[in-house]
Design goal:
alpha/beta, 6-stranded mixed sheet, 3-stranded antiparallel sheet, 3 helices, 22% helix, binds inosinic acid, binds magnesium ion
Length: 173
């Protein structure tokens, strides 16, 4: 059984403030396509993309799943939605919710590399550096967090909690 922590780990105002500065960092880099890794990044993608706001910045979605209904990574990553992606020669910014073991991002980057983009960079809202098992580091990070399972602002546990506007820690009871 799990329950939410008593107070949010990161509240909506803190998210807003960080997104403003993160968007400035991202604006300084040029990208052709934001490639959002669903489902966890759906809110972050909407909020950050409209802050970058460039007329020629395109958006595309893939789906990467690794977790099932568990709080532990399953290690295997399933990527769907790349069939119709046209990213050859384009500068790609992958947007994901969280870097945990790094398996998901590593697989996404490997898969995309095969499609011949000009460049690939990655932006994640949250980074759990201490959990990394593969040598992968994001180019842009919203918040560094401890090794705790978090939900809200798009992130789920068994598909629950995604619509909460803040980021909460999920505690085992
Ligand atoms: P990784 O492959 O271990 O880096 O895990 C990345 C994916 O696992 C993320 O895209 C999330 O979907 C999920 N994930 C990892 N940590 C958490 C967490 O604390 N809360 C919710 N989902 C998580
Ligand atoms: Mg995810």
């Amino acid at each position: 059984m799990f329950k939410l922590s008593n107070a949010p780990l990161i509240n909506a105002q803190q998210i807003d403030k960080r997104l403003e500065s993160l968007a400035q960092e991202l604006k300084a880099s040029d990208f052709d396509v934001i490639l959002s890794a669903l489902t966890g990044s759906y809110i972050f993608t909407a909020d950050i993309s409209r802050r970058i706001a460039k007329p020629n910045l395109q958006i595309a979605f893939i789906k990467a799943s690794s977790y099932g209904d568990s709080t532990e990574s399953q290690g295997k990553v399933k990527i769907s939605g790349i069939e119709n992606l046209d990213i050859k020669g384009k500068r790609i910014l992958i947007v994901d919710d969280i870097l945990d073991t790094g398996n998901t991002m590593f697989s996404i980057v490997k898969t995309l590399t095969g499609l011949g983009p000009a460049s690939i960079k990655a932006c994640v809202l949250l980074n759990k550096e201490s959990r990394r098992t593969v040598d992968y580091h994001a180019d842009f990070v919203g918040f560094e967090i401890e090794n705790k399972f978090v939900v809200g602002y798009g992130l789920d546990y068994a598909n629950d909690y995604r619509t909460l506007p803040e980021i909460w820690t999920l505690e085992e009871v």
